[in-house]
Amino acid sequence: MELNLLTIDAARSAIQERKTTSMALVESFYARIQKEDSAIGAYLTLTRERALEQADRIDRLAAEGKPLPPLGGVPVGIKDVMCTRGVRTTAGSKILENFIPPHDCTAVARLEAAGAVVLGKLNCDEFAMGSSNENSAFHPVRNPRDLSRVPGGSSGGSAAAVAADMAVVTLGSDTGGSIRQPASFCGVVGLMPTYGRVSRYGLIAFASSLDHIGPLAKNVKDTASVLRTIAGRDPMDSTSADVPVPDYVAEIDKPVSGLKIGMAEEYFGDGLDAEVRKAVEDAIQSLAKLGCDVVPVSLPHTEYAIPTYYIVATAEASSNLARFDGVRYGYRAKNARTLAEMYRRSRDEGFGAEVKRRIMLGTYALSAGYYDAYYLKAQKVRALLTQDFDGAFRKVDAIVTPTSPTAAFQLGEKANDPLAMYLADIYTVTADLAGIPGISIPCGQTREKLPADWLADSW
Amino acid sequence: MKVTEKDVAYVADLSNLELTEEERAHMVRDLNSILGYIDMLNRLDTDNVEPMAQVSDRYGVDTSKAGSERFAYANREDILFGLRPSLPHEEALANAPDADETFFKVPKVIER
């Protein structure tokens, strides 16, 4: 039995039936991390003690012949933007290098309550801002399928850990594509749920009207299984919706025949790599053969999504990141003579270049004289983008698009051109802005790997 | 050039950032490049479009009500203990770069 290749159900059953132990599974994953991760860089912190304690609990349940919870003994990794009580949580930033939260993120707590074993915290772009994982203050993550390439971002560590068999499933966060784009670059499944589906309590905020937590896994079933566990109203997050959680795992067995699949020409225009286009078109053909109705739909405001996103997201970020001031937690500059100097120097020395760029852009867009031209304008275009989807989903059940215009690019390729990097999110930001769910499912391989994105109406 | 060095200095001040001379020069270049791209939003006529600030406006809001009543879906009971006990003092101070047993400590605010 290849322990590192087990799915959720296979891992849980193997432990339940005493073919292996949760402890052995955990050790096999730590051995794998020890062997592979120095080249990849997916993990920032390992939580061995916490993992072994949980594994022991699961093994005792199994030994007593009691039924294991749904994720009993399943080794998982957590993007380091989700707080873990007593375990360093950095958000990939120097400013939080030594931050030890007093609380657990609800999504993490729900995974552990369902029996999952947290192996450690995963590298990401600083404050989840980036599309290549090169903005981590600690070290970049490399794509396990080709170490010269980026794993995508910002949940690069979460995608790489799954792709390299260093976790069965992981949690990531998605504000403009940060789950789906790295999933596509690394050839794994990544799901961004509907806005409000999963509590963000304990998620270090980037842009509150856009932030989502969701799973990355090797297959759709494991993705569904994790979503079922973490979804649902949480009184600690007033934006979590009070909408019943269906059994996503059971839903998977329903046939796709008869589904109406939308194909939006705006997602197949200039800039889309020919190999990516071919793979996605082939996938749509396969769906047609399975009995799906492929229907053309129009999302006419798509080209305005990136400019809209970079106003809304940075405006919200400039406000959210104001809390990092070197007073209550985080990095503090040495030898400041006044409070104001201490604030400024702590932020100057604690934040990386991309984070400062976004704080500046967001502050500019919200500043007197520019608010109407930028922030208000972007909110109005956001409404138009959302209406595009409302119109499309009156005609179809889901829309299939590429996740990213290209396969994974080389490290350093876009590092000095922020605008080029932003355009890597061109097909993903629309769903974040509209609040609809999206899932990236591998559908082919270029020299490297390949992406397709499904967008569906809410819930 | 829409954004000048002076604008960058002003916005840095609003953002509680200092920025080195080199960072300011990069910021002028990058903000102009990004805002130049963002200007394409002006091609759209949005005079009659209602701004969308929140996705949750679309799901929970009771549009027949006014004021905070519209957002009743987001209410919860305001319970201090039980639902959300306060952090013990020492835990709340544990991550502070500088603190005594009671307070966060910062450089002097008022010069005497």
Biggest interface: A-B, 70 and 59 residues
| CATH-defined fold name of the domain at 3-252 in chain A | Amidase signature (AS) enzymes
What's the CATH superfamily of the domain at 1-44 in chain B, by name?
Answer: Glu-tRNAGln amidotransferase C subunit, N-terminal domain
The pLDDT mean of chain B sits at 87
The rough form of chain A would be described as globular
Order of helices and strands of chain B: HHH
Q: Largest sheet of chain B, if any?
A: none
Radius of gyration of chain B: 23 Å
Strand content of chain A: 5-15%
Low-confidence stretches of chain B: none
Order of adjacent strands in the largest pleated sheet of chain A: 1-3-2-4-6-5-10-11-9-7-8
Contiguous low-pLDDT stretches of chain A (5 residues minimum) are none
Mean pLDDT over all positions of chain A: 94
Instruction: Provide the structure class of chain A.
Output: alpha/beta
* Helicity level of chain A: 25-40%
- By DSSP (H or I, 4+ residues per run), the number of helices of chain A equals 15
Rounded to an integer in angstroms, the radius of gyration calculated over CA atoms of chain A is: 21 Å
> Regarding quaternary structure, how should these chains be classified?
heterodimer
Overview of the molecule:
By secondary structure, chain A is α/β, with parallel strands linked by helices. Chain A is built from 15 helices and eleven strands. Chain A has helices at about 10-15, 20-40, 50-65, 105-115, 155-165, 180-185, 220-230, 250, 275-290, 305-320, 340-350, 355-365, 370-390, 420, 430-435, and strands at about 45, 75-80, 115-120, 170-175, 190, 210-215, 260-265, 295, 400, 440, 455. An eleven-stranded mixed sheet of chain A has the order 1-3-2-4-6-5-10-11-9-7-8, with helices on both faces. In chain A, helix 4 links the parallel strand 2 and strand 3 (about 115-120). By secondary structure, chain B is mainly α. Chain B has a domain at about 1-45: Histone, subunit A (Orthogonal Bundle), CATH 1.10.20. Chain B is built from three helices and no strands. Chain B is flat and about 55 Å long. Chain B starts with a helix and ends in a 19-residue tail after the last helix. In chain B, about 15% of the residues are buried. Chains A and B meet through helix 10, helix 11, helix 12, helix 13 and helix 14 of A and helix 1 and helix 2 of B.
